Amino acid sequence: MSTASLDAAAAARKERLSQLKSLKRKAEAAPSSSTPEDTTAPTPQVSDTKDVSHLLSGRNYDIEDRAPKMGFVSDPSAGQETLEAAAAVIAEETRRQRQEAEKEDKPIDLFNLQPKRPNWDLKRDVDKKLERLNQRTDMAIAKLIKARIEEQKAKKGGTEEEEGEGVEGNLAKMVAEREKEGDELDGEVEGDE
Description:
Elements: H1 3-29, H2 37-40, E1 61-62, E2 67-68, H3 83-104, H4 110-113, H5 120-156, H6 167-192
Antiparallel strand pairs: 1-2
Helix pairs in contact: 5-6
């Protein structure tokens, strides 16, 4: 096909479309007028406002408002379950559950986490050494008491030694026995180490 035939086809199409538009206009004007003469020769209507409703057509133009349509009259997804709505429901439910869980959770009490006796293992290890030290302390106290008793006897005089065998004498004997036991334990302790 040549360009001349294409131009001719386009011109013929335009002519047919204009004839269809004029027939449509005549059909709309026919019910308002009852004479058959109006169908053959249309007379222009004279009015203060131009009626352009038949000239403007389109899906984004609102004839009543004489302005472009802004959005939808009703929500196109009304009554349908959409992913966005389902996601919003899930998000709201998880937020509610998290708030409930936060209300139920109590703060961690740090005093309950630590052991009631935090140094029990240290005491266990040191107890053996403390036994030895306690024995040596007792012996040192006994020596001091014995020395004090001997000083008191020396001040009173050497003749009263036989009379003082009451409590002081018994105490002196006990201190001497304790020293002997301590010397025996010292020998064992030095042998262990």
